[in-house]
Amino acid sequence: MASDPRQNETQVALILGPDSTHLESLISHLMSSSNDQRSQAESLFNLCKQTRPESLLLGLAHLLHTAPKPETRTMSAILLRRHLTRHHDSFLWPLLSPAARSSLHSVLLSSLQQEPIKSISKKLCDTISELAAAILPDDPSAWPNLLPLLFQWVTSPEPRLQEVSLLIFAQLAHYIGQTLLPQLSTLHSVFLRCLHSSTPSDVRIAALAASINFIQCLTSSSDRDRFQDLLPLMMQTLTEALNSGQEAVAQEALELLIELAGTEPRFLRRQIVDVVGSMLQVAEAEALEEGTRHLAIEFVVTLAEARERAPGMMRKLPQFVRKLFGVSLNLVLDIEDDPAWHAAVDEEEDAGETSNYAFGQECLDRLSIALGGNTIVPVASELLPTYLSAPEWEKHHAALIALAQIAEGCSKVSSLALLFLLLTGYCDCDFGLFLLLCLDLCFVCCVDEFHRFAASVFVLMLLCCAFCVKPLCTVMIKNLEQVLSMILNSFRDPHPRVRWAAINAIGQLSTDLGPDLQVKFHHLVLPALAGAMDDFQNPRVQAHAASAVLNFTENCTPDILTPYLDGIVSKLLVLLQNGKQMVQEGALTALASVADSSQEQFQKYYDAVMPYLKAILVNANDKSNRMLRAKAMECISLVGMAVGKEKFRDDAKQVMDVLMSLQQSQLDADDPTASYMLQAWARLCKCLGQDFLPYMGFVMPPLIQSAQLKPDVTITSADSDTEFDEDDDSDTCLEQGGMVVRLVMCFGVEVGWPRLGFWGVLLHCLFEALLKTAVLDLHFSAVNLPFFVNLWVVGPSGFMIYIETITLGDKRIGIKTSVLEEKATACNMLCCYADELKEGFFPWIDQVAFTLVPLLKFYFHEEVRKAAVSAMPELLSSAKSAVEKGQSQGRDETYIKQLSDYIIPSLVEALHKEPEVEICASMLDALNECIQVSGPHLDEKQVRSIVDEIKQVLTASSTRKHERAERAKEEDFDAEERELLKEENEQEEDLFDQVGDCLGTLIKTFRTSFLPFFDELSSYITPMFGKDKTSEERRIAICIFDDVAEHCRETALKYYDSFLPFLLEACNDEYPDVRQAAVYGVGVCAEFGGSVFKPLVGEALSRLDTVIRHPNAQLPDNVMAYDNAVSALGKICQFHRDSINATQVVPAWLSCLPIKGDLIEAKVVHDQLCSMVERSDRELIGPNNQYLPKIVAVFAEVLCAGTDLATEQTVSRMINLLRQLQQTLPPSTLASTWSSLQPQQQLALQSILSS
């Protein structure tokens, strides 16, 4: 662009003058392949936009009419859309005069009416829709002739006009759906007519899209029901496209229907049998294209996964579940015996696997998770044995692969028990389902309270098992062994791919059933895997056997593994020396796991193993050996941790020298060495402890660099030929697209409506990317459209992202997950170093804090956030330890205050915006630890922010639980869904637990100054005492009051009237944890309540007596409550002696001693006993030293336990008291007391008193 302003004005005037050829030329240059020409054109275009925006837009609109070249009209439509999209940075509509706006309205609509080329028409539809979306929500009359004209076109006899009007209606549904509600009857009639079979397929697809979009935007179920009669016509659009051989049209219809299944599954409920039946017919039609069949299956799987909107609906169609499982299983049969697979080259790992095979695996996995074991197990048990007994190796292979795929979804105990019963013929499907019904009924009763009815149902179930099959526990163990034997028999199958699949199944079951499988069946599995490692003719089988050893040993204890170590280690060493690279890599990974699981037992093999590992580390320098070297690094570090610093020290120095050399070399960007090295350094630090400090200056710079990596996210043109790097599985764009869509949904917590600019553009990019099925994989679009639509529906409640890392080109999404994984690893390692090195980590605290604190809100990757959260208290602890030990480079307590002021508010802010319940719990845990370290440094404003956030957490949790309760009322709700809700509610309980701990720490830290905040929180805490709340909520509420009573003492007395009745009632709660908290609180109130507690002493004694005298009081589950009740009774004896019958109560208390379950309370109680003996407490000693033998017996038991049941000081006092008794008691009394002791107690006391 020329620098002379006059020349600029002249050029702009020429371009926007009456001769449109100059603007056409500019548009042409904008599309030029010459960078210089395109850059100059962009500068001129921007100048026109800045100086004469109205003329520019009208000129572009004029070109839609007059430009002879289709590409010019196309580009004009695109540019107009960009500048008429409300949330685009270049939104120019507000700058236009009313006359220009009116003119633009008319030109856009007339251009659309006249445009003959369909692709340009669709872009014009987009432009018109964007403009309508920008202006109509605020002022429905801003484009007065738009809707009338659309209704006119949609009833036109011209199919082209029908289609474009429907396309615009489809998009407007998202923007002004509620505005169109008065036109609902008219729209319904329009859709009904346009979906009719007599209309062209393009019109029907447009009508299908519009219908589905309107159904999604309708909030009223009655409004949605008015569209029910459209559903048969929607399905007819699909079937007629298939019948006429138009599979591309059918696939468009399927994608739209998948969207409906994911977002509004309840709309399908009334006709679910017909709809699902039709889809399964398509899925089974082998004459159709793979893509079509896969989309039909995807529809049904998506329906099964739509549990939040239609829980259990698909589980009520067992006949279709069986058919779908069979179809998916049949897809897994589509595998070829490719010679490349046998060659065992990493790049050919999937050789012979077809797209059918991969999709079938995925469906089995998703189905088992979505429907649960109770639904899938009976189906699997019916089909899999048939496959296993067939002569074809493909069927054996498919059955074993299926077993591995469904293991996760069916890993609940009841489901697995039934699977083994059914697979081995111990019961038929009908009886198996009856057993599951019994289990479910028992579960329903036990979820809320363990009523007698629940017990009776469970007993009934066991009786049924006793009469109809062998006792369930015995049968389950026996039949798991039979199922394993069935799989292990396939280790000897003639076909290596079947053997591989059998090993794969064992590996998966080892993960999903661990550690029970390891404990019971190590004698079967480990020898079989060791034998499979001898299959030198099939190295891929060998390598997979080594991998399965890893799966198995991950859940092994050293005592299980030790008897097999000689054989396993020797075989792995053979593979390291003689195997192919793939086998060597598997052997290294297995060896690392074996070492990690066997710990010090591995020392025996260290000298034999380490030379091989170091040789690989030093010599595996070729590019092809990079993963081998990386795995050697991993193995060495895990072996070092297993055997300990003393054994590993000398080799560690050599290994670290090699790692330093590698780190200084220029590693390729895709070299796995870097990521593995990050973890190896951290393990070496954990092994060597403070001896690792000299290496920290070398380790930290690249580690910080990895932690600071920006997410590599791209959105490229759906029409471009740009290919994403697919060399690395984790980098494949299309496989990760769904992840991006889900990520975007998580960002709704960050920024409000004012930040819609980026949001709107991103939404549109996502939408177009997902719809460009001509370029994108159909399955990817089908899977992820529902997630995107959910995103669209929930709207921009907020969004924050590192925008500079996202390219908003035209429209394909990619994310390089290997970058995120490296970042997550680095963040975890930083946390590990801070934890391990304590004050030694001080020099890096500032740099690490400034790196990790922003990552508390890194929504691209959960592991990054989790690592950042975990590191916060570690950084504060390191700083505090360094200051206290004088290793803080001259910094004092002020530094801890500064660091705390940076970390804690950031953590609270991140908690406010965190979408994942599990991470919220982790954040509260970290916040609690941070307060423990630096609580005194918090000011009132910071405490206020923490308390306000705790309120928000409690409110949000209550809302989620209410929503789940509403879901439980759905007509499709069933036992599987109840189990899933139970798991979700357990996460909420963990959250409440962390809230309780956090409040407890605040109370302990600030004591009476926290009470104003406690007053605010009371309205949140008091409802938690309700009987309708879970036992965990009641326990937490009680613990919070316990802390207030204990640490605020006299100033907490005003709360006794409100809270003590809850405590007393909870003393006899059916849940031991609640009882423990309650009786502990009674003891606290007895100690500090003074005259306020006195009127309640009688009731407290009664409640405590019930706990103590219960016949099962000292069983493991109840002993903590028992011990705390005894402690509370002792405090009543000590502080309210005048309110009790001391001659009865004190001896009763003594009779309960010693207590041995709660070691903290044991120390308190036994110290109290010691004090009472020292002052010769009359009621304790009893008339004529009546209770002295009991006292001595208690002392003997306590002393025999060392310092477990008493502090060193109390132990010393007890010994002194016993020596005094030896000297002062009459010999006859002493002899009588001594004779009452057990022989071992007498010996112990003799030894203690004589030393």
TrEMBL record:
A GO CC term attached to the entry: nucleus
Domain TOG: 442-673
Start and stop residues of the HEAT repeats: 483-521
Annotated InterPro entries: ARM-like, ARM-type_fold, HEAT, HEAT_type_2, IMB1_TNPO1-like_TPR, Importin_beta, Importin_rep_4, Importin_rep_6
Localization in the cell: Cytoplasm; Nucleus
Pfam families: HEAT, Importin_rep_4, Importin_rep_6, TPR_IMB1, TPR_IPO5
GO biological process, one term: protein import into nucleus
Keyword annotations of the record: Acetylation, Cytoplasm, Nucleus, Protein transport, Repeat, Transport
PROSITE patterns associated with the record: HEAT_REPEAT (PS50077)
Superkingdom per UniProt: Eukaryota
Listed name of the protein: TOG domain-containing protein
Organism: Vigna mungo
Source organism phylogeny: Eukaryota, Viridiplantae, Streptophyta, Embryophyta, Tracheophyta
